Amino acid sequence: MVGVKRKLTLFMVMTLILSLFIVGCSNTTSENKGKDDNGDNGQGSSETVEITWWTFPNFQALDGELGKYEKQIIEAFNKKHPEIKVNLEMISFEGGPEKLNLAIASNTSPDMIYDAPGRIIDWAKKDLLMPLNDMFPKEVMDDISPALMKQSMVGDDVYMYPFNTGPFMMAVNKTIFEEIGELDLLPLDRPDRTWTVDEYEKALLAVKEKAPDVIPSGFYAKSVAGDQGTRGYITNLGGSRFLNEDYSEVAINSPGGVKGLEWVVEASKKGLVAPGSASLAASDHNDLFLQGKMAFAINYSAVLKSLFAPDKTVEFEDILLPYPTPDGSDPKLEPFLGGMAVFNNDDDKKAEAAKKLIDFIVNDPEWGKKNLIQTGGLSARNSITGVYEGSEYEYSELARKFITDPPTIADGYAEIRTFWFPALQEAILGTKTAQEALDNFAEKANEAIKKGKEK
Question: In this structure, are residues 261 and 434 in contact, taking their beta carbons and an 8 Å threshold?
Answer without folding.
Answer: yes
